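dude i think i finally got it to work??
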Amino acid sequence: MNKEQFKGKWNQFKGEVKQQYGKLTDDDLKEVEGDYDKFQGKVQERYGDEKQAVEDWAENWHKNNT
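look at this
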């Protein structure tokens, strides 16, 4: 998923990411606001070693929602 695709699907994505990964707060999601680089940073901050699993989930979500 590229940055433009991420931004375009942000409103759909943020609700599902919040359900799947509850460590990402509403404030985190407001800060990210469709920016894939910021999303990756927040995932790293909140999930550390699980970063790749979260990114894989995001990629799979995108494939299933395009």
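The helical segments are 3-8, 10-20, 26-32, 36-47, 51-64.
im so relieved honestly
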